[in-house]
Amino acid sequence: MTATRFVVPLQGSPIDRYRHYHALDRRVVTEFTIQYEAEMNRLFEEKYDELFTEFNRYVVEHPAFSKRIPADALVVLLDKNDPVFNRENLRRVKKYLKHDDQPHRPVVYVQV
Question: What does the alpha-carbon distance between residue 19 and residue 35 come to, in Å, rounded to a whole number?
Answer without folding.
Answer: 5
